[in-house]
Design brief:
Layout lengths: L4 H45 L2 H6 L2 H10 L3 H36 L6 H9 L1 H15 L1 H4 L2 H9 L4 H26 L2 H7 L4 H14 L1 H36 L4 H42 L23
């Protein structure tokens, strides 16, 4: 029997918050290490393809012109952009896989520990990375295809009216596609981990679910957003008022201010991660109780087949 959302939150919300905080620290370390490695690799590649004097002098305009004029320069720029994209997306994929894996284990099996965040994060890292790339290509790629044409109009002195129209269309299309990306990506990571699917199947099933139940899937996102905004709106004003009140009562004592500042920071961190945990648990709980049967009507209790297995385990199928 499935627990209610509030029972699940009471049992696992705090542990999930701690796991997300620790995972956030590892995510930050992962991100900065990847960024440093990217800078080193980018510097070496640019030094190979361009004159070192431009790099040492910091002449970025001359460096850009030099890269564009040399054979393979544009290819190098494309490679650097691609590597930068990978640098940003890999840490994000780890954190997304860990967060959804931990929330899935809490809701679907009720057996959970802080370590699940890290095991599922690393186990599903590359699958989540592939899923995020495909989702971005599907939803953001079409808008990006308009950029070369817009650039051509801007460089070659096209009509300003035509250019403005294309820019307006570009931003409208980008907004619509971004909403689609967020809508599908709300459940696709959860489906990939909870249902033991591959990258393609998770996107296909998330798309089918969104088409079948657009209102319910949108409601899941709105509820999650409402939980986060509600937590911030309820707790933070009270904390700020208390901070100001104590500051006035103590006459602006510096030591008291430091203590209150630390307390305020810790409160903000707790609210942020607990609200995020509550939001993810609501998405996973609504998927299990309200939405899952539309994808698997012949086997609504499919998760029973997974009881006793490692939470978040999935074969490396794509």
């Amino acid at each position: 029997m499935t627990e209610s959302y509030f029972d699940t939150l009471k049992r696992h919300g705090l542990k999930l918050s701690v796991a997300m905080f620790l995972g956030g620290l590892l995510y930050s370390a992962f991100y900065y290490v990847a960024l440093i490695l990217y800078v080193i690799v980018a510097f070496l590649l640019i030094a190979i393809f361009s004159s070192a004097s431009y790099i040492l002098e910091g002449d970025t305009d001359q460096l850009a012109d030099n890269l564009a004029s040399e054979p393979g320069g544009m290819v190098l720029i494309a490679v650097l952009i691609l590597l930068f994209f990978v640098t940003l997306l890999l840490p994000h994929s780890f954190w997304t896989a860990g967060a959804y894996g931990a929330a899935s284990a809490s809701v679907f099996r009720g057996e959970w520990s802080i370590g699940y965040f890290f095991t599922t994060g690393f186990r599903h890292l590359w699958k989540m990375f592939g899923q995020q790339i495909l989702l971005i290509l599907f939803f953001i790629g079409p808008a990006l295809l308009m950029l070369p044409f817009i650039s051509f109009l801007a460089v070659n002195g096209g009509s300003e009216v035509v250019l403005l129209i294309f820019l307006l269309l570009f931003f409208i299309l980008l907004f619509v596609l971004s909403i689609g990306y967020l809508w599908i990506s709300l459940h696709s990571p959860l489906i990939m981990i909870a249902e033991r699917t591959g990258v393609w199947d998770s996107i296909r099933l998330a798309f089918r679910l969104t088409v079948k139940k657009p209102g319910q899937t949108l409601l899941s996102g709105l509820i999650a957003l409402g939980i986060s905004l509600g937590a911030y709106g309820l707790v933070l004003p009270i904390v700020f008022v208390l901070f100001i009140l104590f500051d006035v009562l103590t006459g602006g004592n510096e030591i008291v201010r430091v203590i209150l500042g630390i307390f305020l920071l810790l409160t903000i961190l707790f609210v942020a991660y607990y609200a995020l945990s509550a939001s993810l648990l609501s998405i996973a709980h609504r998927y299990k109780t309200r939405l899952r049967s539309y994808l698997f009507p012949e086997d609504p209790d499919r998760e029973r087949a997974f009881v006793g297995t490692t939470p978040g385990y999935a074969p490396n199928n794509w």
